Amino acid sequence: MLFVLGLAAVIWGIGVLMKVPRRQRLILIAVLWALVVIEHLVLPAGHPLRLATGGSAQVWLSLGLVAAVIAAYRAGLGRLRQRALPKPVAPATQAFRPAELDRYARHILLREIGGPGQRRLKDARVLVIGAGGLGAPALLYLAASGAGTIGVIDDDLVETSNLQRQVIHTDARIGLPKVQSARDAMRALNPFIEVRPYQRRLDAALAADLFSDYDLILDGSDNFDTRYLANRTAVALAKPLIAAAITQWEGQISLYHPAGGGPCYECVFPVRPAPGMVPSCAEAGVAAPLPGVLGSMMALEAVKFLTGAGDSLRGRLLLFDGLHGENRSVTLHRRANCPVCGQARATDWTAPVSTP
What we know:
By secondary structure, this protein is of the alpha/beta class. 46% of the residues lie in helices and 13% in strands. Helix 8 (135-145) packs across helix 14 and helix 10 (204-211) packs across helix 11. The termini are far apart.
């Protein structure tokens, strides 16, 4: 028996010197044990080899049983220790590069956003309609905030008159498509995001397919055709819609989301104004910082919605008066007879669309 134990010690020692993995050394010793047991079971009683190795298989079977119990105990103890340890929770920021963690540090420090909220921003897909006055600051702040995928649709080119308020464009990019100019600005600001430019009009044939690829829609268009189309498409797909509008010194913004319990845009504005009642910026003028204020509010509402921070503007219309420095909020309600989201919801609709 001592001979077998010595042989096992030699096997173990050689394995250590040759840096054989512990598991393989144990397997070799187990093979040795099995050979000894087989030898005792096969050879007749009194055989010299049996006598030299203990004389009886019972000794080795008992030894093997003790070893198995010890091994099972150690394995069970290891499992219990693993279960007793707190399960490592994968931090929301594990997919972030070190440069991103530094970039978004001020967001991560906010209790209402933190790492999980920043990860939700990184995973979010946001579509912005229009790369003009409202879209410009919204796009820049969405990019700076770390919204992972940002789509922008607009068919206009950058013009000199845009630069008074559309801060995403530059003099050097006059004549370029607005979506290309916006993409370049966003990518220059944050190379860790994906920007999807769509240089074309938003129309009924495109809207549903386009909206379905995004989690949140921001409407910064400047005409009612596009606003009604965006609203109806968003309602049909149960997508949240943040819409804002400006004129001269005033602006308004709300989050329209019937699927989340709020009204839709058409609940609040069931009838479009008569021609000439709401002049465009080109007709009535606009204070340069005003679209920056409302566009930044759009981005802020988007960040809040995507991260779950604070109270959104769902069910409220925020009115901003820049000339007199006043804000007020109006409570909104769904209309039961709304043709878009109410009981009288239309089953078929189309809408003419002009340039966002």
